[in-house]
Amino acid sequence: MGFAKPRQLRLNAFAMHAPTHQSPGLWRHPRDRSREVMRLPLWLELARLWEDGLFDAVFLADVLGPYDVYGGDARGAIATGAQLPAHDPMLLVPAMASVTSGLGFGVTASLSYEPPFLMARRFSTLDHLTDGRIGWNIVTGYLDSAARAMGRDRQLAHDDRYRLAEDYMEAVRALWERSWDDDAILADPARGWADPDRVRVVHHHGPELRMDALHLCAPSPQRTPLLFQAGSSPAGLGFAARHAECVFVSGPSIAVVAPRVRRLRDALRAAGRDPYAVKVLALATPVVADTDAQARELLAEYRSYVDPRGALVLLSGWLGVDFAPYRLDEPVRFIESDAGRSAMENFTRADPDRNWTVREVAEHVGIGGAGPVFHGSARTVADEMARWQRDADVDGFNLAYAVLPETFEQVVHRLVPVLQEMELFKTAYAPGTLRQKLATEIARS
């Protein structure tokens, strides 16, 4: 009796239109080109590289405010470049799409500060311009600095944001799916551009939002963009179970991530959905060299460039805890904050006997944020990815970088060929839209 082959891994590049994303301080590395992120040529080069490596998509992160929890202001973020400056990721997409044909694009956009009418229009436009390769990472926001920038005292409470999100999704889906019939466009000199009887105004009067609108865009290849989501709270899991097609999870170890994946799969079953129709992608940062020893040396080299202050700026924003008053040698488990204790689960569950200091936490998140660093030869890293797929039940990875574009060059030129030899990764893009590509495994001998 034979055994079923493991499902093919999905790989996204995880990036941000900013000089620092998940590895603060690495912009100072002599081979890093993050100083060029404000200019288009680097992004076109990266898009071609990701397509050469058959990445499913580039997952573009975004924030709408600075990380200003550390020290009570944005000075730390400004000084270290910790996800600041942060430029609009959507404007990169058409340019990268113009030099690729298979690469998808997942763009983070917050629904808390933009009417659904405008959001629907922008994503429909991008779906047209990419020939159906656009995805939306649905976020509700987590920074009060963003709320203040939008004229509010603070962001909505957590569960209130998800109540808004439910109403929002009903409104944007109505625009994408119901305003125009499939055959509304005629483009016929005799009959006209479109049939008015096949286009209608959407009337949405929900508990949070009111809208009476005719969608301004013709039906795009996907109509609704592929829907990404990353919530892990009970409200976030429920939202993902109802709406998401790809879910992004993060944690430093299988011990942390596997229970989160189980809870998501259970929520999908409870919502009446196939739990494996949704792709679960874990955060990871690969460091790949010819040998394990060389990879260890390379990782040590990278770690020498980590900026501890920048790491604590990001960590303070993620956790809602100001780390500035604490000494670097102070144990983190004694920080008196409910948010801090809850978020420290990422570390204490992975290593329950370790008494983490502030310095050690900063060093840990300094390469790759809250995710693991897979380092070693291509075979070693591939084996570790296979172990995560098996034991954490993930479908693939959002791959962050340490040095740009070196990390991705290591993946494309070293790791991907080994994954293909192991029959864990595709050898060509499937045809169709991004949604169709992710639903298809390339036939394997």
Automatic annotation (TrEMBL):
Keywords from the UniProt entry: Flavoprotein, FMN, Monooxygenase, Oxidoreductase
Carries keyword Cell inner membrane? no
Could you tell me which Pfam families the record lists for this protein? Bac_luciferase
Task: Kindly give the InterPro entries that the UniProt entry links to this protein.
Answer: Diverse_substr_monoxygenases, Luciferase-like_dom, Luciferase-like_sf, NTA_MOA
Transcription regulation as a keyword of this entry, yes or no, is no
What region holds the Luciferase-like domain?
Answer: 28-390
The record's annotation in PANTHER family points to: ALKANESULFONATE MONOOXYGENASE-RELATED (PTHR30011), C2H2 FINGER DOMAIN TRANSCRIPTION FACTOR (EUROFUNG)-RELATED (PTHR30011:SF16)
Q: Which family does it belong to?
A: Belongs to the NtaA/SnaA/DszA monooxygenase family.
Q: What is this protein called?
A: LLM class flavin-dependent oxidoreductase
Q: Which organism is it from?
A: Rhizosaccharibacter radicis
